[in-house]
Amino acid sequence: MLGRLYKKLTEFLYPSFCVACKILLSHHQVLCGPCYAALPHVPSLHTKTATIPFLTIYAIGPYQGIVAQLAQAKEWHDIQSARQLGRLAALYCVQKHLSYDFIIPVPLHWSRHLVRGYNQAAVMAESIAMATEGRVVQPFARTRATKKQRSLEGIARKRNVAHAFGVKWYWSFEQVCALLEGKRVLLVDDVYTTGHTLKEFARLVVECKPARLDALVACRVV
Ligand SMILES: [Zn+2]
């Protein structure tokens, strides 16, 4: 009862607007019905490589339009946009009946985290966990500071992220594998362009033999 009252009060005090067309929304949502329905569909991508036996990559939208704008807002430290992406990601999982034991955001290097103040992928992961039954775990780290992928081209992007991930210093790889083995694991990232970063991270996670490994990104270049 009190919870419902509090929700009504916050909705009255802090009304939300559709981030695309700016109309007033009756509930705390990110997009109004028509703008949500107008999001271009991005087909899921089934990846299989020599080192990754299975990986399905889902995307909320293409790397254009409103979802891309929200993802790019990290450049000016707009955590509110990251939370809005998280709510869209959570809705995506609920509508597709996706559920996982563990949700793992692709880690940022500590130096970039320090500058930005947050990891957009981790903010998204928390929203997904709240809406589904999964738990966010972050035993991995970006062990070296990589350059921004969009500043590079072709093979340089692959080299840039090669062996860029490892486990955090207070975890052992065996401990992480004991946690993830046989479990359903979702990796989360904001932007997917060539996929080198996500695949490099997945290559490490897959060594722990999860029963299922999927990834959800906010937007994917199609
Ligand atoms: Zn709208």
Structure description:
By secondary structure, this protein is an alpha/beta fold. The protein has two domains: about 1-40, no CATH class; about 40-220, 3-Layer(aba) Sandwich (Rossmann fold). Helices cover about 40% and strands about 20% of the residues. The chain has helices at about 1-15, 35, 65-70, 80-95, 110-115, 120-130, 155-160, 175-180, 195-205, and strands at about 45, 55-60, 100-105, 135, 140, 165, 185-190, 210-220. It has a six-stranded mixed β-sheet, with helices on both faces. Helix 9 links the parallel strand 7 (about 185-190) and strand 8. Helix 4 (about 80-95) runs parallel beside helix 6. The longest helix has 17 residues, at about 80-95. The protein binds zinc ion (ZN). Zinc ion binds near residues 18 and 31.
